[in-house]
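Saturday, quiet lab. Running sequence design on the C-alpha cells for the scaffold JK sent over.
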C-alpha cells in the first residue's frame, strides 16, 4: 500500500513527509483554492518539499478533451518531476485519457462512483482510478464494495491500472479499502496522523522510560546518556 497526502497545505505536507512513509501528494481545484494563493506557486512549493521522484497529482478543469490535453501538457511543462494529471470520468475525460496515454502523460481517472466507470478509464489508459469512498456512502451506496468490485475487474481483465482510493471520513474506511484491494490511498492530514495514534502506545513508552530512569538516574534520557 502506498500513502498519499490529500492536501495542498504546505506546513502539513512538510510535517507528514518528514515523519510518515509518503508516496506523494494529491490535489484538486478545491484543495488548491483553499490555500488562497497562485496555484502554480503552491504546486512548486509542494514539489520542493517532496522531491522529484514522488508523485504530485494535479487536476485539469477543462470541459473538452482537447482543453484537458492542453492543460496536461502545460502542467507537465511547468511542474518538474513525477506529475500525474487527474481527469474526471466524463465522456470528454475518457477521450482525454486516451489521448494523453498516446503521449505517455500519466493520468488518474477521478470522480469515480462506479466500478464500470473505473473499468472504462483503465481500458482508456489511465494509470490510476480514484473511487470516492465516502461520497459513494453518502449517496446510499457502499464505497468499500465499489473498491472491491474494481479490484476484481482489474484482476479479471489483467489491467495494470491501480486503485487510488479517495474521499474518507474516518480511518476505518481507509483500513477497509486496503483490505478490499486498493493499492494506494490518498488521505487528509488529520486521518494520516491517526494511523499510528493509540493511547496505550504513549503510556507504554512513558512507563519504559520511567523504569529506566528509576534505575539509571534522571539523566539517563537516552541509551547514549546512560
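Result came back. Writing it out in full:
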Amino acid at each position: 500500500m502506498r500513502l498519499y497526502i490529500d492536501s495542498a497545505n504546505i506546513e502539513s505536507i512538510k510535517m507528514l513527509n518528514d515523519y510518515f512513509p509518503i508516496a506523494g501528494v494529491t490535489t484538486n481545484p478545491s484543495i488548491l483554492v483553499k490555500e488562497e494563493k497562485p496555484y502554480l506557486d503552491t504546486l512548486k512549493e509542494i514539489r520542493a518539499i517532496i522531491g522529484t521522484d514522488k508523485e504530485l497529482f494535479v487536476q485539469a478543469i477543462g470541459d473538452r478533451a482537447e482543453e484537458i490535453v492542453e492543460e496536461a501538457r502545460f502542467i507537465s511543462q511547468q511542474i518538474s518531476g513525477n506529475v500525474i494529471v487527474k481527469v474526471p470520468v466524463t465522456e470528454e475525460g475518457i477521450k482525454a485519457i486516451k489521448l494523453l496515454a498516446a503521449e505517455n502523460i500519466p493520468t488518474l481517472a477521478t470522480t469515480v462512483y462506479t466500478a464500470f466507470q473505473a473499468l472504462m478509464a483503465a481500458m482508456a489508459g489511465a494509470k490510476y482510478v480514484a473511487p470516492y469512498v465516502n461520497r459513494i456512502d453518502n449517496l446510499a451506496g457502499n464505497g468499500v464494495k465499489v473498491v472491491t468490485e474494481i479490484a476484481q475487474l482489474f484482476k479479471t481483465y489483467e489491467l495494470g491500472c491501480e486503485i487510488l482510493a479517495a474521499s474518507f471520513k474516518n480511518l476505518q474506511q481507509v483500513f477497509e479499502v486496503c483490505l478490499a484491494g486498493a493499492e494506494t490511498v490518498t488521505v487528509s492530514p488529520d486521518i494520516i496522523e491517526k494511523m499510528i495514534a493509540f493511547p496505550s502506545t504513549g503510556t507504554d513508552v512513558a512507563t519504559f522510560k520511567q523504569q529506566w530512569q528509576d534505575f539509571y538516574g534522571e539523566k539517563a534520557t537516552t541509551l547514549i546518556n546512560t
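Notes for JK: The radius of gyration is 20 Å. The mean pLDDT is 97. Ask whether to fix the surface positions before the next round.
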